[in-house]
Amino acid sequence: xxxxGLCCISLALHDAGVRFRTTTVKSHYDAPAKDRKKRLxxxxxxxxxxxxxxxxxxxxxxxxxxxxxxLYPLLNYEPANLSWSKALKNDxxxxxxxxxxxxxxxxxxxxxxxxxxxxxxASENKDVRDRSISELDNHAExxxxxxxxxxxxxxxxxxxxxxxxxxxxxx
Length: 171
Fold this sequence. Notes:
With about 170 residues, this protein is mostly helical. The protein has helices at about 10-15, 25-30, 35-60, 85, 90-105, 125-145, 165-170; strands spanning about 5, 65, 110-115. The radius of gyration is 17 Å and the shape is globular. The protein starts with a strand and ends with a helix.
């Protein structure tokens, strides 16, 4: 049986104005210090609502959905000092996450998550490996917050990038 799925966002949704928002470290620190946390939390709440819209779009078509790792920009950037526990104190984030969780539970839809290209568990650089593990922990926490079981039905896809000598040993 062939199964179709969508990775991150569709052109149809994009053309209809459904888009994820993001930010950069530079943009984050260019903003006034008093506005930074609210700005990031607004982006996360928006992205959770966009994820719900995209999830519904996929479910209506019988597709699976690979959620974007761009849902929560800078969550793993230590100087930003963010975490899911802090983010969930924001009412908009908590509500958007709850709506997404309820929809996923009710629809029994299959979803997955895919970290970005900077997650390299087999890197020669220990700092990169450590940040990769932290990023995967954040992804796992997000899947747990959605109430998704740890199974092949709801995977976190990981690329090993193990083409260099010694990669298997480092992993």
